[in-house]
Amino acid sequence: MNRRLQVFYEKLGPFYSVFIIAILSGLIALIGYHHVQPRSYDFKVNHVSDVTILAPSTMEDSYQTQLNRQRAREAIADIYVFQEDLLEIERDRLDQFFSYVREWKNRTYTQSQLVELIKDKGPDQSIDLEQIKQYLPEASQSLSFDELSPSLQSVLAQLVFLDPPADLQALIDQLRQDNLRLLLLLDAQDLDLLQDELLQVIKDTMSQELSASQLGQELLNIRTQMAAGSLPLELQQLALNILSYSIKPTLIYSESETKRLKDEAEANVQTSYILQGQVIIQAGHVIKPTNLRQLELYGYLNRQKNSMKIWVFLGLILIHGLLLVRLFYVGFDRSDLDQKSKNLTAYAIILAGALLSIELSQWLQIHHFLYANLLVPMAVFPLLLYTKTNLKHSLLFVLVVHIFAIFVLTNNESQTLVIYVSLFYLLSSLLTVIYILWQGEIKRSFRRQRFFLYTLLGQLFLAIPIMSALSIPVNSKQVLWILASTVLSNLFGFLIWVLLEPYYDQLLSSRSPMTLNQLANLNHPLLKRLIEKAPGTYHHSMMVANLAANAVETIGGDSLLTRVAAYYHDVGKTIHPLFFVENLSGGIESPHQMLTPQESSQVIIDHVTEGVRLLQEEGLPQSIIDICQQHHGTTSTQYFYYQAKETDPTVEEADFRYPGPIPQTKEAAITMIADSMEAASRTLKHYDQTSIENLLDQIIQSKLKDGQFADCQLTADELLKVRQSIIKGIASMYHTRIEYPH
Questions:
Q1: What residue spans of 122-250 are helical by DSSP H?
Q2: What angle do CA 147, 148, 150 make, to 5 degrees?
Q3: Band of residue 431 on the pLDDT scale cut at 50, 70, 90
Q4: From CA 281, how far away is CA 283, in angstroms rounded?
Q5: What is the pLDDT of residues 8-64, one digit of tens each?
Q6: Closest CA to 296 of 5, 547, 45, 489
Q7: How far is Cα 87 from Cα 208, in angstroms, rounded to an integer?
Q8: Residue pair 665/626 in contact by the 8 Å Cβ criterion
Q9: HEC readout, 119-147
Q10: Which of 44, 137, 420, 576 could form a disulfide with 141 if both were Cys (CB 3.0 to 4.6 A apart)?
């Protein structure tokens, strides 16, 4: 972790994770809130709109669908069916009616029959028998209807039709009393003539289609025809009265057929939709009720109706925050605090960067930068996160970033594009995950070009079927834009990796190449101080750096870190440079002669603690500080220990040991070996292969016996490679030179 970030982390301690989670959650809320906040408009009918609103998604317009179905039903006229049997029914009724008239007309009436009839039905018709006794026939007489007196005929005409057959009741009710009397008074010839005339008219009229609306006009036509006919005038009115009842519409309304056709028409009506991208309301146009109804469907007129989205969004942020607490917060248990805090920082940086990139692309998209959403290099983000964490965190990122991306993308005009972009993001990220699983491990030196070529080909391969599934024509100009945006997305991803990855690495790693190269600059204040105050130590540090870095490289370790750490490993000697033999010029007496062995030992040991202090004050990475602190481990200053033991055999060796800790990494252990070997090699009288090997073996064996390599995980095979590299390095440092003639 970057030194400044490390200092900040150490100040917050166990609350660092909570702080990062809170900041990340706040940033997510800030990015997404304006995309999910309920928006409402104060639109009024017959007012001019000042904004244009497009349908954000395709939605069924149930009101319009119902209206169209109602219109389809109303467009179907009522169905009338021609009833052929009506003609026969009416002809039969008319025949029955005339038969009934003839039956009464052809009877003979006696006095007793008439008296009985009048007594039976007369009171109901207010007929007084006493008043008509004078008109009754003699007791011995039997008279036909025609032979009866006119008064008695009228009474009889009134009584005989009081209780007709049920089928004739309605017809008789239509006729006046004088019509009935006239029927009874007609002679047989006129009665036949009237019947034939009526039957013919009924046949002519009801043998064709006749609707209820045409009935009145048809009766008028019949009246006109009769007036011009041969029927006597007195019979014309009687005939019209009978016909006004007998002639009925032959087209009868069919409720079942009408319902069937209306149902079919309704079923054939297509469901009405408001299509995504359709203009609901146009700026500068007058607002109509239909516009308001469609706006209401999408919740533009009711903030509360559209508020569920924001609660879902905030709920997801809360769940995400709690999940991060569960994964990364370790409380006051420091055993895993450093690594989890580093992982959380990397996760927060990558997630924030991805969401900010999506937000920027969305802003460009809204401002008519076509397909800007596709320019987000989503494939590179999981890879950047994986290099600092693990696959589990990369998969969590893939899930989370796509959930929140949906909220950012929702106010695009094209829902099809939203779906495509979402799938594009998801599949691009999954391609990266597959690549990670395929590679097994991503090293610092992995081939970037191969990765981006792989993702580009994968995205192009997946783009065509996705567009086909979303009904995007593959031969359209839109496809060319999408494919071009995909290529640019990978180009941007490559540029992000090349340009920004070093800074990302520098922020999260104490051994990033950029940081180490900056620290290797000899103009660094500590190195300048080392050159000025302890030039011998500076030269020693350079030699150690070469030996250690080359040895580390042979075992695949971080040689750059080792080299830079070796530059600074003895910077503590600048506090008391003359107490170290490499800084003494010829003829200068060693200051140790004025100190006791214990004091001298403490001065020597202090160069480590003072070096750590100086490095911390200058803000150097912890990885370099660790190597400086561990390069002597817990070894002892044996020269001063034995010197003290000569005067006081009771002294403890522990008082002459460095505080440690022993080397925790291979780089620190190799720096320890190189440091000891470079210093000890100066005491050799002969720099031949055997003497160098023997000296190095003695140093390595002494460190092993002292347990200095117990925690660094340096294997025997690696130690052998380190030995060979250092021997080669020392031999090259002290090679024989040619003596030139004077």
A1: 129-132, 150-160, 166-174, 177-185, 188-206, 212-227, 233-246
A2: 120
A3: confident
A4: 7
A5: 777 777 788 888 899 999 999 999 888 877 666 677 888 888 777 777 677 888 888
A6: 45
A7: 10
A8: yes
A9: HHHCHHHCCCHHHHHHHCCCCCCEEEHHH
A10: 137
Give the H/E segment covering residue 251. strand 251-253
Question: pLDDT value at position 40?
Answer: 64
- All residues at 6 or more sequence positions from 410 whose CB lies less than 8 Å from its CB, including other chains: 35, 36, 56, 309, 418
| Beta strands at 273-274 and 251-253: parallel, antiparallel or unpaired | unpaired
Query: Structure tokens of 692?
Result: 């160098």
Rounded to the nearest 10°, the torsion over CA 436, 440, 444, 445 is -100
pTM of the model: 0.64
- Cβ(350)–Cβ(385) below 8 Å: yes
Give 13-79 as a DSSP string: GGGHHHHHHHHHHHHHHHHHHHHHS-------TTSBPSS-EE-SS-EE-HHHHHHHHHHHHHHSPPP
Size (the chain), residues: 742
Residue 447 binned pLDDT confidence (cut-offs 50, 70, 90): low
d(CA 240, CA 227): 11
pLDDT tens figures, 637-673: 888 889 888 888 888 888 899 998 999 999 999 999 9
pLDDT band at 206 (very low <50, low <70, confident <90, very high): confident
- 395 with 255: CB under 8 angstroms? no
Say if CB 692 and CB 731 are below 8 A apart. Answer: yes
Q: Which domains does the chain have, with CATH numbers?
A: 3-37+306-509 (no CATH), 81-253 (no CATH), 517-734 (1.10.3210)
Cα separation values, 631 from 138, 529, 561, 601, 734, Å: 163, 20, 14, 16, 24
Q: Are 206 and 86 in contact (CB under 8 A)?
A: yes
Reply yes or no on whether the pLDDT at 443 is more than 70: no
Higher-confidence residue: 686 or 40?
A: 686
Find out whether 663 and 651 touch, Cβ atoms under 8 Å: no
| pLDDT value of residue 305 | 59
Residue 162 dihedral angles phi and psi, to the nearest 5°: -75, -30
What is the average pLDDT value for the chain, to the nearest integer? 83
Q: Which residues contact 71 (CB under 8 A, 6 or more apart)?
A: none
| pLDDT band at residue 246 using 50, 70 and 90 as cut-offs | confident
The answer to whether 328 and 344 are in contact (CB under 8 A) is yes
Q: pLDDT-based confidence at 336, cuts 50/70/90?
A: low
**Distances in whole angstroms, Cα of residue 332 to Cα of each of 5, 22, 335, 343:** 19, 18, 9, 17
CB 627 within 8 A of CB 511: no
Residue for token digits 């008296």?
Answer: 115
Q: Which two tokens stand for residue 599?
A: 């004091």
